[in-house]
Amino acid sequence: MGRYFVFFLLFSIKVNSQDIFGKWRTIDDQTHEPKSIVEVYKENGKVYGKIIDIYSESDKNALCKKCQGDDYNQPVVGLVIIKALTKDGKYYKDGTIFDPESGKNYTCRIALNDDNPDILEVRGYISFLYKTQYWERIED
To answer: Are the C-beta atoms of 46 and 80 separated by less than 8 Å?
Structure first.
């Protein structure tokens, strides 16, 4: 009985690490240093992501000066930057991602990397132009 429980537990952990939900370390495009931690979660059937921590001590209390509406001048930590993605095959798409540094919204698509499920491919689009970032899973 104990052997089957250990197998089931290990299998469950592996399966759970195969989805997009959880905490992800974002990486700065220029310095390649860790920048923030984004938690990806599901709410009302849609996928969202919010900044839950910032690595730079000087930016931890930053306010979103380039945000619009209710998010203007609110703390960046706690800001929901990924909004309303829906699953379509291996991708989550048809939502948006917000860059608090530039103040721009982009159409967004995310998916686990085919070769490494601990890498999240985050792609932002404007028309046919896009940029992809690779976020690293953080184990709890």
So the answer is: no
